[in-house]
Amino acid sequence: MLMAHFNNLQIIPATDRRRIIRPVWPEPIAMCGPSFPMSRKNKAVVVVMGATGTGKSRLAVDLALRFGGEVVNSDKMQVYDGLDVVTNKVTDAERRGVPHHLIGGVPPDADYAAAEFCRDAAAVAEAIARCGRLPIVAGGSNSYIEKLIDGGGTDAASPGLASRFDCCFLWVDVAPPLLHEFVAERVDQMVERGMIAEVRALFDTNPKADYTKGVRRAIGVPEMDGYLRSERSTSDEKERSRLLAAAIDEIKANTCKLTCCQLEKIRRLCSRWDVRRVDATEAFRRRGRDADAAWEAAVVDPSARIVKRFLYGGGESGDDVGDDEFDVNVANVANAGNRTIVFTAATVAAAAAEKGFGGGGGGGAKITTSTLAAVGATV
Predict the structure, then answer these.
(1) Are 252 and 187 a contacting pair, CB within 8 Å?
(2) What are the pLDDT digits (tens) for 191-236?
């Protein structure tokens, strides 16, 4: 199925030495699944948060299939073209037919700041709602989510989604020791899937590139620099093997540090937003079919009940979920962290037309470049 997202972009010359990216908007098409019954809230958005590796994208797809939604990525590294393994972009099989937006489309060397993301994600969310579908925000950058929801910044014309939508916040949480074990194993799996070759190909395009710009900020790229340079400078296999092992260990350590920073941010957001915590620890303890069953029972089912009550209320239209069952107990959360955003989006044509993002002719949507902090600076 054709999906409406920003993958097809045209680079347009700019006189201010910045790159301008114009999405080519598709024609309105029928999206997967039915739209919501009109009895639900007309302006609603679900935001799925969690540390890296906790299953945010998986839950977003599960909810999209149940509630007629679409996913809009908010991971600030996944908006770039390339490095699909390094940035853990959701695969076609993992999407299960659910349209995903803002995955890829930005050139690897460009900078895509929070302001650009908020503008584009808000337009997509508005379009989804107009189509009678549910926007589901999920990704990996909590600072982007915060700006998207609350607004702020220099563009007063772009208020946060909270001023236009009712927001439902879900937090997928996993016990930190278990999560750290999982993300370390995932790095090993990424190596098996071709991570080193992916980074090498990017490195070869410009060995002197700046690791504070664009997709090169992603964890898994700067750590490989010493090893990749050794491939050009030494024939000592033992030394190269040592450097590779050290790089992989550093990637694992930095990923674990990222989860801690992400959780700290989520805890701060919990003090301002009505966030519902869903504990996925048991699902991560299981293996095989038991893990899938545990995920459904411990994560999907309670999350679906929360969203159903959010959309329809209790009683006849939705299950009445007790507040105590899903209250966030911040005091008992170990310090780990992650900023994640996931959005659902239907056809973007409606919002595109209103915002002047026409697919042909005059002024298209523009994604301008701007400086971004290094990956560790803003989660």
Answers:
(1) yes
(2) 999 999 999 999 999 988 899 999 999 999 999 999 999 998 888 8
